[in-house]
Write a structure and sequence with these properties.
This protein has about 180 residues and is α+β, with helices and mostly antiparallel strands. The chain has 7 helices and 6 strands; from the N terminus they run ααααββαβαβαββ. It binds zinc ion (ZN) (2 copies). This is DUF882 domain-containing protein.
């Protein structure tokens, strides 16, 4: 028993020496390198932190939202701008407002066709109406008429559909569009 007790003390002493060795050497040699390693990521992190907020300020679309204002819609599939007078500066584009009843029926026509309808002429000022050879009493000047076509739909079929939807129709077969008015 006494021999084993001595061996135990030796073992404990050796263990203590080992602990001293670990705590004595580790702090001196191995703590410094980690500090220098920590010191390097430190500046990199502080350098990255200003960058990511800067990217957040640039990317959230706070600046792009005002740049792309939602266009005024004439109806579900048409922007109001599609009906704007297309003269070259003779007017501000809106000598008259488009008749909402016409806009609604053109929208129904578009949905009936199930494909895009192209507006080639909406409202016209006096000068533009003269340029395109429109009649003096043209409904275009009041915003009560539009010229349009539907790629893939024959002029005759489009005219028939527009007529059934309650519009007065003037088909221009040679030019490939119809004039509709209310
Ligand atoms: Zn004009
Ligand atoms: Zn017309």
């Amino acid at each position: 028993m006494k021999y084993k007790k001595t061996a135990l003390w030796i073992f404990l002493a050796a263990g203590s020496a080992g602990l001293v060795f670990i705590f004595g050497v580790m702090p001196g040699e191995s703590v410094l390198p980690p500090q220098s390693e920590i010191a390097q990521p430190g500046p990199q992190q502080t350098a990255q932190e200003p960058e990511s907020p800067a990217q957040e300020h640039g990317s959230p679309g706070a600046e792009s939202l005002p740049e792309v204002p939602a266009p005024e819609m004439a109806s579900a599939h048409f922007e109001m701008a599609e009906y704007r007078c297309d003269c070259a500066g003779l007017c501000d584009g809106w000598p008259a407002r488009m008749n909402p009843a016409l806009l609604d029926r053109i929208e129904v026509l578009r949905q009936y066709c199930g494909r895009p309808v192209i507006i080639t002429s909406g409202v016209r000022c006096e000068g533009r109406n003269t340029e395109v050879g429109g009649v003096a009493w043209s409904f275009h000047k009041r915003g009560d008429a539009a010229d349009l076509y539907c790629p893939g739909v024959a002029v005759g079929d489009l005219a028939q559909t527009a007529k059934e939807l309650g519009m007065n129709v003037l088909p221009y077969y040679a030019s490939g569009y119809i004039h509709v008015e209310v």
